[in-house]
Amino acid sequence: MKLLLKVPLSPYSGYGNDGLGMIKSLMAQGHDVYVLPAGVQPPIPQAIAQLLTRELKAPFDRTIVHVDPAQLTLSESEKRASGATIAWTMWEYSTLSNMKGRSEVKENLKHFDYFVGYDEVTLGAYEPRLPRGIISKVVQGGYDPTDWPDLSDKRNWAEGPFRFLMVGQLHERKDPFVAIQAFQELKDEYGPDFEDAELHLKTTIKTLHPGIEDAIPKLKIHYDVWDHDLMLKLYAGCHVLLAPSRGEGKNLPALEFMTTGGTVIATNWGGHTGWLTDEIGYKLDYVLRPVNPRGDALNARASKEHLKELMWRTFTNRAEARKKALAATSVIPAMCSWDAVTQRLLDATPILRA
């Protein structure tokens, strides 16, 4: 199948990494892939770099535009050159009222045949502004599981330290402070019975004051950008990833961590619902709150009390947590790999024009 992808190419951004993963997967499946990059940030794999030398020869069976919402647009001539045109993106709020350029959404999308959102939250936010006739679908983006081996044999679930983990740019949307507060209160309430519990916060942005480490026993903040081997070592040493996020497209660190043999406690809203089941993790209760006082865009606020319950449950019932973690090592790659995801996308978006 002849496919044109309009995607950023970068190992350092979410959409850029997705672009690289999609292309790698589609090429491996035998598709004839052409690329019109929305941006390039080296280094990129040589095989993908070579695609940039290819002349864009229409027609294409499908044109897939997978970019940040602000960049989601297509020309009339690009539509005519393709059997189906697909806008694919994510949004982490209940409406578009806090999106810059929201008044232009309908015009920007008018030449797409399909609008594909990562989850029902994305779809619900966009639907009031979709142009007439566009077909809406839900297909969540994927990840590359080959970089994340099963490290189940490296973890000691039976005894010793039990480590909770948060990973990512731990800003407001990730809501690290609800996890910090839950951990601190569990330390205060259970004392010696929670002595073996640790909380590790891996972030690349300085939103967490280092004094937190002094105030809360067994809490450790890890700054800086780590290479792949260091991340694997961190994952292998931890048991439960905490994701009390206010909104997510998919949550790449959670997928990576589960692939290595850990389990998760994650807000049961937005992108998490695309993969979060009781078989592999723990669903965290939440309420919806306005993003700002004057708007109608909502996102989730995880329940601190429920997070404490689930942290204590995993800490005291390690056999149950381990069972979920072991299930995740097979469930997540099969469901969320780019190979599985791109096939779902193509199945959901039939060609409409010869």
What does this structure look like?
Helices cover 33% and strands 20% of the residues. It is α/β, with parallel strands linked by helices and 354 residues long. It folds into two domains: 2-142 and 338-348, Glycogen Phosphorylase B (Rossmann fold, 3-Layer(aba) Sandwich); 146-336, Rossmann fold, CATH 3.40.50.2000. Helix 6 links the parallel strand 9 and strand 10 (197-202). Helix 6 (176-190) packs across helix 10 (304-316) and helix 10 crosses helix 11. The radius of gyration is 21 Å and the shape is globular.
Question: What is the terminal-to-terminal distance?
Answer: 13 Å
How many distinct beta strands?
A: 16
- Name given to the CATH homologous superfamily of the largest domain: Glycogen Phosphorylase B
**Beta-sheet strand percentage?**
15-25%
How does the helix and strand content classify structurally? alpha/beta
Name the quaternary structure: single chain
- Uncertain runs are none
Question: Tell me, what is the CATH class of the largest domain?
Answer: Alpha Beta
Largest sheet: 6 strands, parallel
Q: Give me the Rg, rounded.
A: 21 Å
Provide the CATH architecture of the largest domain: 3-Layer(aba) Sandwich
Q: What average pLDDT do the residues reach?
A: 96
User: Which bin fits the share of residues in helices?
Assistant: 25-40%
Outline, from the CA principal axes? globular
Strand order of the largest sheet: 3-1-5-6-7-8
How many helices? The count is: 12
